[in-house]
Design brief:
heterodimer, A: Rossmann fold, four-stranded mixed β-sheet, 6 helices, B: six-stranded parallel β-sheet, globular
Chain lengths: 211, 471
Amino acid sequence: MSRDNILHRIRTALGRSAGQAVADPPPARIRIPDVDMEKRISTMFAAIEALAGKTHRAATPADARALVAAAIEGKSAVASNVLFLAECGIAGLSGVRSGIADREELRALCAAADVGITSADYALADTGSLVMISSPREARLVSLLPLAHIAVVPRDRILTGLDELFSILPNPAEATSSMVLITGPSRTADIEQILVRGVHGPGQITVVVVG
Amino acid sequence: MSVEFDRKIHNTLADANLQLAIYTATARLKDKRSETVAPDALPDYQELRTQANAVKKHTIENLDYYLEQFERNVEAHGGKVVYAKDGTEVADFVLALAKEKGARRIVKSKSMTTEEVDLNERLEQQGLESVETDLGEYIIQLAHERPYHIVAPALHLTRYDVADLFTKWLNVPRETVIEKQTAIARAVLRQKFLAADIGISGANFLVAGSGAVVLVENEGNIRLTTSAPKIHIAIAGIEKMIPRAQDLAVFLKLLGRSGTGQLLTVYTSFLSGPRRGGEIDGPDEFYVVLLDNGRTRLLPDRGKRQSLYCIRCGACLNACPVYRKIGGHSFPWVYSGPIGAIITPQFMGVSHEPALPFASSLCGACSEVCPVKIDLPKVLLELRSDVKKAEARDHRGRMEKLAFRAFAWLMTHPRLYEMAGKLAAAVAPPDSGWIHSVPAPMNIGPLRAWLSQRDLPPAPARSFREMWRRR
């Protein structure tokens, strides 16, 4: 069996024996800068805009609802089942389908929709990334299949960057089967190094920070 | 040097369009990298490299331990780990699984590891459809070629080449606008994603402590490959292991910047097992195939083992003056550039292309940009020594040995050396390039190849020794 052969070859080469303990790995290098919330938001917005993403501040959930309503006017949209979208009244906007729990139905809707609306579990200021943790309320395909993605994020979820994320979630596998960081719209430069947005994922991304 | 290697190099050098394409693409990637790792942009860049090197060193030195830990954690989340010693075992596993599940349609995301074992060809021979979904890889698959560059697989093709391929294979009107070509590929591949039974990905990292596969990309095809079909198979070299998710805070910062000059790629997926109770989408089954394919051969040698630290960013290709002239397809295997020059002889054996470790000026530009600090020139030197030892064993290279012995003898006898210098100056014509006119009897066989690449400046009126005596 290849498993045992391969492990045996490795141990022989390294001079180790089966079940032998290891010294601790080098301590993880986590450095979290001290950045106030306003600065985090401005840094994050600059990073998203540099990637041709759109950004908005909404003072209240009602403002967020109005922003999203304007953005999806005349378009078809799917919203994830996350509570925050319902609290903002976004899941209930006309033209928005939400509350879908069946895989096939959700897939068909997302494949046909113009816009996918989600929240985000966290956002990273220094890179402008959204952190999407798959759950019964936040499916994977809502932020992936539609042509455009709108994420509505409460401001207290904005972290400084990767280091802070991995200090809060030292092992994301405990919480989910899938954690995805989204940094700007889908893009490619595979033909003649010319940048094209919206290859397989959404070509437009809009981040609304609430609060 | 094999005839094949020599021919491919000369063809590349003679193709002016290709030279320009390679130069432009690598220059762009190189510049973008430099901007994002500059001291004002990333002050702790050198510390991150040092940490990445230390973590990789620790992991490789205890690889069996982390493989077993990874395996336990994948299984705890409902996934399955399979070991494969070579490409045949990878293909056999996928074929058996496809048969068991009645699966026929496969979507694939870009993976150097599956290129290594010719997975698509093996699956297609058995009647499965295996479609590459990264735009560049898709184009390459239609062209029946190998990737030209680790991060820019279709670097050598123009929009007109793409138009020809799409017209020929996709039955669409000829289209030369790049945005529209991309839209065509999106539409065709979207249907493939939605119909696929199995998604096959590679892995950028395997996280032992989480049992997770980490994948980076810009297009979204990896997310679709790993989320849309009911079965996800990740195929990864055993060396992709890192101990903890927290190590990603270091590696992800280095990978995006070194590869394409991005702070992070558009999508970074951290996947650990099939979808869990209540999760609406995601695969029902999750497999990780851990591939050896020659990797365990590198482990015994403490000096060369570091070749396994590589995170496949491609920065060494862009920095390398040799890659930038001879391009990706001159290299004898799927891995090109400096990293190809050190891992190909080790995975495949030095006799695969004995000239490969010598196809370098040892300038060190590769190790300077390597995010995990692999000492590539040192490994190249060790491989050169391996090639020469193998030649000596087979009683080859005797002429070369003799020539070097004569050279050493001359260099250790100052009077003779001076005489030889005077003699050479006396017979040499005053213009440069005189060595091309060496007498015909000397200009033969291996010596001719050597002389054709070399020049000497005109001989000076007085040698340094004479000037020194008269100072």
